[in-house]
Amino acid sequence: xxxxxxxxxxxxxxxxxxxxxxxxxxxxxxxxxxxxxxxxxxxxxxxxxxxxxxxxxxxxxxxxxxxxxxxxxxxxxxxxxxxxxxxxxxxxxxxxxxxxxxxxxxxxxxxxxxxxxxxxxxxxxxxxxxxxxxxxxxxxxxxxxxxxxxxxxxxxxxxxxxxxxxxxxxxxxxxxxxxxxxxxxxxxxxxxxxxxxxxxxxxxxxxxxxxxxxxxxxxxxxxxxxxxxxxxxxxxxxxxxxxxxxxxxxxxxxxxxxxxxxxxxxxxxxxxxxxxxxxxxxxxxxxxxxxxxxxxxxxxxxxxxxxxxxxxxxxxxxxxxxxxxxxxxxxxxxxxxxxxxxx
Length: 343
What we know:
- Helix content is about 25%, strand content about 15%.
- By secondary structure, it is of the alpha+beta class.
- A hairpin with a 4-residue loop joins β6 (about 150) and β7.
């Protein structure tokens, strides 16, 4: 039943809790479909946005009500069966209540089978939506955010986060060849972590359009001699210098000297191996959805046989592990001071 018809028949009910108010406002202000899944025992809802504008509206409401915003990305369980990592029930299982106004969207682009990398390793289990420290969660289904288009002037590709990896391989992008075909680009970006320190250029990521937790929308890409896109927002004009300052700190130098970058987030994108240049987009590689919301990604062919997970090499030194942990906390605070995206 449409919200307006429900209000006409039963009267507009006053929300009982802040969560009720959040879900009610999201259902009223977003064009897409909203489901309240709080029957699972936690305050949790799902939005199937019509377009990126719905996600921007959701971000604003999440910031106002203290709700974590996460992509929806079911993944396989470690034993390889169809169970999910700490999988939460779907709306049908939980008796979810629809509050939006569009018809059912297609199935989630992640597929029901999930997948593991060609090396047999499972991506980081911390992509679990339930790891929310008890905070309410809004998960974004990426089904309608799956456009893939070729840019004729450059021959590059522009992809939304729900675009399937199989389509990227078919488009001639070999860096996706070893990832499961039914993954979406958001999962790949969240887990792509396995390059040696300073080697993130092999990813083929040209630039990313990001939505930061304060509502800033910015394009991050090449920065330096070949960079042609100015940083337009005051937020990013403050963020980038602070990250460069962090990249020359003793902790960053210690991590950069390791063959395998030990930090969760790829600050080494600011310390590339020559002849590669700095590319701010590479900061989001392996970010687990914790730094920013990615609206779209521009891609060019990268290196095939991309190491999707961290190599099983010698363990990092105690000093490097401590340095990586401190860098991780500082990068998270710099990107997402509101802690909107979890982590």
